[in-house]
Amino acid sequence: MPKLCVNVDHIATIREARKTFEPDPVSAAMLAELAGADGIVVHLREDRRHIRERDVEILRKVVVGTLNLEMAPTDEMVKFAKNLLPDHVTLVPERREELTTEGGLDVIAGEDYLKTIVSLLKESGIKASIFIDPDVDQVKKAVKCKADMIEVHTGRYAEARTEEGKEVELERIRITVNLGNKLGLIVHAGHGLNYQNVRRVAKIPGITDLNIGHSIISRAVLVGMDEAVRTMLDLINS
Ligand code: PXP
For this structure, is 76 an active site residue? Predict the structure, then answer.
């Protein structure tokens, strides 16, 4: 069964709506871990629209499971990660005007640059993951960049409206996961996963971690973090 890593960015989104101190994503992460989450994910964006340095620095000290720092592949962020030493970094594309990460990184176009970023991270003992669309050529390039892991973007599956469309996207994900495993990569998956669509992805063999944020935080706002995480864990494990 894949592990569940909870992305707490949107707790910080609520805090930043008022630029105040609450709710604290650190408290949310602690509650998620107490409810059984295996790890915590945060995305420190260039515009600091939700998570801030202070959050990640405290999380590094208190998270018991894995701390996965999502970040853009920039010199500034590499420097930050090398000081912080998260368990792993997930490299994601970032555009200021996007609402959320819109697609995977284009490893084909950015191979040389990403190779350097991955090696700088690994030099400090940080495992490097690259967020990619479900595409076999991207997987092969991630291997060339010497990434330890890939995270397969599940957004197109999550957005598919017809059963046929969902199956097409699931098959792309399965093929990508399978190739990643064959080529020696650890494979994660995430984006757009929710209580309705998670099971079909959780069933795909070879995915070690599911990274889920928006749907868990949305439910937590209404029923509490404990129930939101436990219900998601039940679905993943059932
Ligand atoms: N994985 C990556 C790489 C992401 O950028 C995000 C969004 O921050 C997620 C997973 C989680 O997506 P969602 O919030 O839709 O569950």
Answer: no
